[in-house]
Fold this sequence. Notes:
The chain is built from 15 helices and five strands. The chain is mostly helical and about 375 residues long. It folds into two domains: about 20-270, Fido-like domain (Fic-like fold, Orthogonal Bundle), CATH 1.10.3290; about 270-360, Arc Repressor Mutant, subunit A, CATH 1.10.10.
Amino acid sequence: MSFDPAKPYDHLPDLQPMAETETVPVLRQCVKATRALAELKGAGGLIPNQAIIINAIPLQEAKASSEIENILTTQDALFRAAIDESQPTDPQTKEVLRYRRALKHGYESLQDRPLSMFLIRELCSILRGESVDFRQAGQNVFIGNPTTRNVLYSPPCGGQLINDRLANLESYLLASDGPDPLIRMAVGHYQFEAIHPFTDGNGRTGRILNILYLLQTGLLEIPVLYLSQYLIDHKNTYYRLLLEVSSKQAWESWLIFMLEGIEITALATCRMLRNIRDLLDDTIARIRKEIPKVYSKELVELIFHQPYTKIAFVVDAGIARRQTAATYLQALVDIGVLSSETVGRERLFINTALLDLLKKGNS
């Protein structure tokens, strides 16, 4: 059947082990991506307190993934808001913080239950800040220009058709046999975006699905590989190749693109983790040398959990009482480990070196 972007793609094929997905160029790139992921898995162990990775780095993924959807916030607004999500902030920053919350929920959920489309629905609900369901009959959507109504793609109609396609996607991803897991991740990402099961939030949910699948298969142990910056850098290519799978069944180009993204992102993340570890070691050595009475493992790890810290964090962590906590943080400012600024009645302490590393991201 010919592809018509204006008509719902109700004949979107079910997924099954497809010979065209395991061509020689795809398998060659798959080997490179697998090797890079193994290196990243090892680099994650360089930082003994995994909370440093899990708390700080996902904010960068949340920002990048949301930026693809034109949800924009600044680094400063994001990191400031992250220290206390109950405080008022702009709607864009709130959406980005919900992304991090959804990612954390997905990661924690995999500790006691397998990846499923029900979990994916929970994640989209967190992303949107409301309870959502898969598209029902009559909830048709399209991808294209909302102003000119130029339609590039129309996902399948809602209702049972969506449920059936999602059930097939879940079975494909979790089957005990089939293509290499990285190939399945790339195929599954296309299929999820093609199904477009929600009225909104599909792109961000699909990008979280990628990382959760890598965790599910054991290719990663902690949620630290994020493709969003790579997709931003190649945004036009990303959308073009997605569309060409639908219109031409052009799997090879799509798969190589995604596998290259995994390789490039994994190696860049390795560099960032090594840089964070070096900074952590340098910070420990500096504090021990210049203000040894202030040093504690817990204090150093606290200022690396995320770039912005406040006195209450030190108190809540049981490191020191309020006055002593203020003295400790000021001592870190005095030797240049932290900087500080006053916002309203509260004083914030910033690990500027860590902030700079995170801003560079996967570049």
